[in-house]
Design goal:
Strand order of the largest sheet: 9-14-10-11-12-13
Distance between the termini: 47 Å
Structural class: alpha+beta
Helix content: 25-40%
Oligomer: single chain
Number of strands: 14
Largest sheet: 6 strands, antiparallel
Length: 245
């Protein structure tokens, strides 16, 4: 079925067969689409409108499957999704940060920055401060991978193994599972990528095209994205960390 929608800009979209992830891919590009007419993933487009307009219009028309979500999880996911198209560079470089509330420029970051920014934006929870204070109390319980002899508030919270330790010490750890039904919106999943690279992602309320597997919000190397990568890598931790009541 062909549909058309007029956007605020006065341009028209003509929609043909497509998938929800097509729309997400356009959104993630975060660019201005200026061609008069083109095809992308089964979408025929006329006019010049923003990539974000495409993404959200198409996803609304598609009405993709969604997981139930608590109020706090909805807030966390909204704060994470805002980063799609905003954080477009993967940058693991060490940087000196102010404390508390320190951050590098939001157009760049790593997987942990997605989590850190989402908790700050949604709940004013500062994982930089929480991790640093916990490491000062119990430095010996944290990984010694980097050869540090004392906490470093510039980088500790941006390292996945440290976040895993903090969440576990905070009582947020959940048993690992290979069943998609065990993952709730707002959960955090730590993974091990090839090359023994730790990674973390946030469980979205949106489902993959199989109607079962939750999509994840993460930065795995090309900026913050919404993707079907939950079971692509070995899990090393599963956490649920709601804000204080």
């Amino acid at each position: 079925e062909m549909r058309s929608k007029r956007l605020n800009s006065g341009s028209f979209l003509y929609l043909s067969s497509r998938t929800y992830l097509d729309a997400v891919e356009i959104c993630q590009r975060g660019v201005q689409l200026r061609t008069r007419r083109f095809l992308l993933g089964g979408i025929a487009v006329t006019g010049s409108v923003t990539a974000f307009s495409f993404c959200w219009l198409l996803s609304a028309l598609a009405n993709p499957g969604r997981l139930p979500a608590s109020d706090w999880a909805k807030r966390l996911i909204a704060a994470a999704e805002i980063q799609i198209g905003e954080t477009v560079i993967y940058d693991p470089a060490y940087a000196g940060l102010k404390y508390p509330g320190g951050d590098i420029p939001r157009e760049r970051g790593v997987c942990t920055d997605v989590v850190i920014r989402a908790y700050r934006d949604a709940f004013d929870i500062d994982l930089q401060q929480l991790v640093h204070e916990d490491m000062r109390r119990a430095f010996g319980t944290y990984p010694k991978i980097w050869g540090l002899k004392r906490p470093d508030r510039n980088i500790d919270h941006r390292r996945v193994p440290n976040l895993e330790t903090f969440f576990a010490r905070s009582g947020a750890k959940i048993a690992s599972s290979s069943d998609a039904a065990d993952f709730l919106t707002g959960d955090l999943v730590a993974q091990m990528l090839p090359g023994n690279l730790p990674h973390v992602a946030i469980i979205s309320d949106k489902l993959a095209t199989d109607g079962v597997t939750p999509l994840v919000i993460h930065n795995i190397g090309a900026g913050t994205r919404l993707e079907n990568r939950l079971f692509d890598f070995k899990h090393t931790g599963h956490f649920r960390f709601p804000p204080p009541a």
